[in-house]
Design goal:
The protein is mostly beta strands and 125 residues long. Helices cover 0% and strands 45% of the residues. It has a single domain, classed as Rieske [2Fe-2S] iron-sulphur domain (Rieske Iron-sulfur Protein), CATH 2.102.10.10. The structure holds FE2/S2 (inorganic) cluster.
Length: 125
Amino acid sequence: MRGQRHLVCRASELPPGERRIVRLGGRSIGVFNVGGSFYALHNGCPHKGGALCEGPVCGTTVDASFGYGRHGEIVRCAWHGWEFDIATGVAVADPAVRARTYPVVVEDDHVMVVLPRARKEPDDE
Ligand code: FES
């Protein structure tokens, strides 16, 4: 996988249902364990820039009769309540809106977020 890996923690330190907010490469990123799979979201809401990853992890309305489902798969922004799929970053109410996601790699019990490498400026060489 291209990019630079940044260590977050041991997988055993981030059990299902938990999250960590970390600062990596100058970015605030939320790393979530959803049912044993790890995901990383930019901690900035696409709506007005609220700390998206600090909102409640929850479910959402899943059908026209207002049934509740997908518990633990959604993060709700604490500022105005927009909901996002943690795995994809897609907004529940409008699939055209997405929170930024980052790849996560787990190797040897280490959870790592993969960030794009910083570009070198011509004067750096
Ligand atoms: S800033 Fe997140 S819902 Fe408005």
